[in-house]
Design brief:
The chain has ten helices and eight strands. The protein is of the alpha/beta class. The protein has a single domain, classed as Alpha-Beta Barrel (TIM Barrel), CATH 3.20.20. It has an eight-stranded parallel sheet. The radius of gyration is 20 Å and the shape is globular. 37% of the residues are buried.
């Protein structure tokens, strides 16, 4: 960091297992990718080429090399995996990952239905050669999954070899662990974390209010994903208590009390 400041929470260093930040690349140009790396690469752990954007993105191979050179792990979004799987092309998908030398992959079933035992078999197979993240939850707001089923699926996928299970939220932040208005499904999340270790979950949280909510619940080292490129630095400031939304999360009580006392004395003087 550029200077010292007390009462800043400690952040683990890259490559890290906690406090992971996943940026969602929905079609950055090469120049935009270089600019992003210069400004925010040190804060970014993984980059997801959102949904099927890698199919139409220009200079894909060069972008992947730029990210990897900067110590960022890129991977294709789960929707692309589903597009291959739905067409009976799983083996071709593996060849595609090898072609682009990607050591990180996502397996999801947010758009199609994959029997869960088969999904776990795919996770186990793929995790033998690369790191796998698997996504739980549907992209369809009309499909409701019980907390018990969320827990059962997350546990099984971690057992099958997933590094992190991704809690579905989409890039819009209004499905999965969120209500249609973007607020968190508090009961669902509390039930999940009563059985699944929070460090094993990456929460898709594209909206600032969602990021604040998770940071206040889990602290600076929560795993967050679907972050827009322009939001990486603002998010890190939220993690560190350097924005108004989380300003008092890490300050000692004595500091709050002193500030309150100064404010009270000032109000007395004015009266």
């Amino acid at each position: 960091m550029n200077f010292k400041l007390s009462y800043i929470p400690k952040r683990s260093e890259k490559p890290r297992n906690q406090g992971v930040t996943m940026m969602m690349d929905k079609g950055l140009s090469l120049r935009e990718t270089e600019d992003f790396i210069e400004s925010s690469g040190h804060l970014t752990d993984v980059v997801k080429f959102g949904f099927g954007t890698s199919y139409v993105t220009q200079n894909l191979e060069q972008k992947i090399k730029l990210y990897k050179k900067a110590g960022i792990r890129p991977y294709f979004g789960g929707t692309l995996f589903e597009a291959f799987y739905a067409r009976g092309k799983f083996d071709q998908y593996i060849k595609l990952l090898n072609q682009y030398d990607l050591d990180l992959a996502e397996i999801s079933d947010g758009s199609i239905i994959i029997p869960h035992d088969i999904k776990c078999e795919l996770i186990e197979k793929m995790s033998k050669d690369r790191t796998v993240m698997s996504e739980v939850g549907s992209k369809d707001s009309g499909i409701l999954i019980s907390p018990a089923k969320w827990i059962r699926m997350m546990h099984s996928e971690l057992e099958a070899g997933s590094w992190k299970v991704i809690a579905e939220g989409r890039e819009s932040g209004n499905v999965g662990v969120f209500r249609p208005n973007g607020t968190a499904h508090t009961l669902l999340i509390n039930r999940i974390i009563s059985k699944i270790a929070p460090q094993d979950i990456l929460w898709e949280a594209p909206q600032k209010n969602q990021q604040v909510w998770f940071i206040k619940l889990f602290g600076a080292e929560v795993n967050l994903g679907n972050i827009a490129p322009k939001d990486l630095i603002p998010l890190e400031c939220l993690r560190l208590g350097l924005r108004g939304d989380t300003f008092f999360e890490y300050l000692p009580k004595k500091v709050e009390e002193r500030l309150k006392q100064i404010n009270d004395e000032d109000e007395e003087d004015e009266s």
